[in-house]
Design brief:
The chain has about 120 residues and is mainly α. The protein folds into two domains: about 30 residues; about 55 residues, no CATH class. It is built from four helices and two strands, in the order ααββαα. A hairpin with a 6-residue loop joins strand 1 and strand 2.
Length: about 120
């Protein structure tokens, strides 16, 4: 009789080494997925957009990027976002709700009353 690992696994069952490799791969995928979800849901030290400060999370070539601005910088970001009329401008579409949270959305135009 041959004492090879394939025979110890039994017919139709993968060798134990393959099972450990699959388990390690699944664990790695779970860890990376968990870290990604945590990173997206926790914007870091900037926190959420409020009180004149805007934080926008955007995909980038390195995985993700945060754009943050307060005061004049935030007002400029919001002015550009609301000036964009391109429905495909993902940065503007992501920035607009954050500007609203920060209280930096443009004021609605006053209704013109005719007489």
């Amino acid at each position: 009789m041959d004492d090879s690992p394939e025979q110890d696994a039994g017919p139709g069952r993968p060798p134990p080494r393959r099972g450990r490799m699959v388990a390690a791969g699944l664990l790695a995928v779970a860890i990376v997925g968990g870290v990604t979800i945590w990173g997206v849901s926790h914007p870091g030290s900037y926190g959420t957009s409020r009180d004149g400060c805007v934080t926008v999370s955007m995909p980038s070539s390195t995985g993700g990027a945060l754009m943050h601005g307060c005061g004049a910088s935030a007002r400029a970001m919001c002015r550009e976002a609301f000036a964009s009329h391109d429905s495909h401008d993902k940065l503007a579409l992501a920035t607009q709700p954050q500007c609203r949270l920060a209280g930096l959305a443009p004021r609605p135009a006053a209704a013109h009353s005719g007489g």
